[in-house]
Design a protein that fits this description.
The complex is a heterodimer of chains A (469) and B (309). With 469 residues, chain A is mostly helical. Chain A is built from 18 helices and no strands. Chain A has helices spanning 6-21, 24-40, 47-66, 69-106, 124-139, 149-157, 170-178, 185-217, 225-256, 274-280, 283-294, 305-323, 327-345, 347-352, 359-378, 382-394, 406-429, 438-456. Helix content of chain B is 46%, strand content 8%. A five-stranded parallel beta sheet of chain B has the order 2-1-3-5-7, sandwiched between helices. The longest helix of chain B has 34 residues, at 3-36. The termini of chain B are far apart. Classes of the chains: A mainly alpha (469), B alpha/beta (309). The A-B interface holds A 5-6, 9, 182-185, 188-189, 403-404, 406, 409-410, 447, 450-451, 454-460 and B 2, 4-5, 7-8, 11, 18-19, 22-23, 26, 62, 87-88, 123, 127, 152, 155, 159, 161-162, 164-170.
Chain lengths: 469, 309
Amino acid sequence: MLFNSISFLIFFPVVTIIYFLIPHRFRWLHLLIASCVFYMFFIPHYIFILFITIIIDYFAGILIEKTSGKKKKQYLWISVISTILVLFIFKYYNFFTVNFNDLAHLIGWNYSIQALQIILPIGLSFHTFQSLSYVIEVYRGKQRAEKHFGIYSLYVMYYPQLVAGPIERPQNLLHQFKRENRFKFQNFYRGLRLIVYGFFMKLVVADRLSIYVDSVYNNADKHDGPSLALATFFFSFQIYCDFAGYSSIAIGVSRVMGINLMTNFRRPYLSRSIGEFWRRWHISLSTWFKDYLYISMGGSRSITSGRVSLNLLTTFLVSGLWHGASWTYVIWGGLNGCYLIAENHARAVRSFFQSKFFTPFRILYVFVLINFSWIFFRSNSFEDALMIISRILSMNGKLFLPPDPEILIYSFIGILAIIIFEVFFETVYRKRKIRNHLFSLNNTFMIVLILAIFLMGVFDGGQFIYFQF
Amino acid sequence: MNKELKKLIRFGTFAIVILFGIDLVTGRILGALYDRMTVGEKARANYFIKSDKSEIIIFGSSRALYHYHSGLISDSLKMTTYNAGRSNQSILYHTTLLKCIVKRHKPKVVVLDLQADEFVYNRRKYERLSALLPYYKLDGDVSAIYNTVRPGYKYFAWSHSLPYNSSVFATLYRGTTSGRDNDINGFMIRKGKVSSALTDKENNCGENLTMDSILIQSFEDFHKICQDANIELVVNISPEFSRYVCERKEFTILKNEIRKRGVLVNDCTEVFENERMFADKTHLSLDGAIEYSNMVVETLKSKLQKKPE
């Protein structure tokens, strides 16, 4: 079920009202059933794949807690490998066969592996990582194994974050399902505000920008430098508003029920360094990789700076591969890893630019670098990405104007609104500089957003980009 | 009653009243401005739906809008002509428009200009039908067709401002400024010049294109309205500056589907080769439009001569 669908507009209030009406002891069951229904709106029988992951990691968690030493580690590995195997079959198997066959062809080996005719289950990477997070935390002794199978299933399947995160940690989420939540107006109000802002980001900005971005990037060879540059600029905001919008709705929906999910985005385009960008962008995934991969490899405590750089690069390459089974994602990840390594090696230069005077320039520098990396993320192929870069650098040719140029006006208005809101949140709201009339200000803000959704929203039921991951 | 619940009810009531109020006022203002527009495609559509009583009407996309010189056709045949072509629109839009106008006026001839990929599925064709939303509440046929292609809209039909979604700025600007459109009975001149020479295009043979039964049904409805109202229907596919070495399956299917219903299709895609006739690869220049309209006049003359009084 998509958040931006009619079904969800009915589903959400019904599920929430029943949640508060029934006794606490039945609420986990209610949420679990609701989550199953939510997931089965996509491809119903794929729910069994989810069950496989749940069963493996549920029993693994208990066994890991019960045992110690070598045996404990063995159970962890069995759990990690089998969970990743499911992900590999559905997400990476065909990527592997294509590359294997190409390599075999290159060395003159007349052998090829058949590709599988399967569709990637929606949000597979998200719930796989959430499930892995549980067994690793139990192994590390930071989380007790959950004995209640229903509550554990709900931890993996909790519908607001099931298909596109935030990827939660068991310490943050599991205990909240056991706590009795009473209806609180403040939770409802805060949740509603997040939901409205999320819909604004998705419908008014992301889906509007996607019209131009898709028409240019899907026919990249037919477009010149100016159009490709504009589409790349638009894509930076499209992907941000699409994903941050989804996260905002997810967090808001959960907040209404009194369950807090972690913040996933914190105004990333206002970052003053690449490192800061990655502390503000897709926080639940960045911290996942930091906690379970980067630190496991030694992190920044490694003996040599070369080793630290290697750890960073590996983490970002794997993160790229997590996003999609394509070399363009791997390059995107690698590029971001290289940015960070370069930034770490240029500490002296960074300290020179610390003063407030340079802040706008630093924000711009981060934006341009991240924008450049998005070219690989969005391009349909590696060859396309190279062609787009060369055309953007030459900047020859005409700017493509869509049949209805009003689309561009709405696109720029959407981007401008997001920039104003983000700067306001960062500089005024977050620092609590406004104390008086906060309630009225929030209400006016919500009314403006709702009106903007009605007048400028795109209601074509567009998918969320991160669903494919 | 629980204190928290009381707060929710108070907030909900205020929110609903304020939102409905703002929606109503915004919708009414935009509606009034929309009706005041005199320039642009929305203004032309508004005039056509509400007032036009021409004897010959041309329907189609931008290829109709820029190709059929309604002034020339009108003078040659001594029959009032209006070009109701609209950029990016498909058969869904044309059928809805025809349904709307036959209730108040029955034209004698309808020329329908179709594109080679007219019956190919493309979700954008459905989205663009939102151009008719300002008439959703005014005309039952508009709401019926729109509900078929976007079933979810009926749940939001209470909104007064939603019909003006994505046309706010055009409505505000055009509705508050006066002026005259430079159209000739709906016909617009396309400016531009083709830079490349006519070459064979090999890469677009449509092997993977999906036909859309809703679009085919929409053509059938269009044909039926013409039959029921005794309107002479002429189906044209106007010239383009591209040649295809391979068969375009979607084009063959289009022609077969139309012929199956006993309607003659005038395939004029390859009648011009001179680049002077074209403003771009898919649109005629003024010279091309005049030449092509003269050809259309001849077709209409023979049709009208055959037609019993």
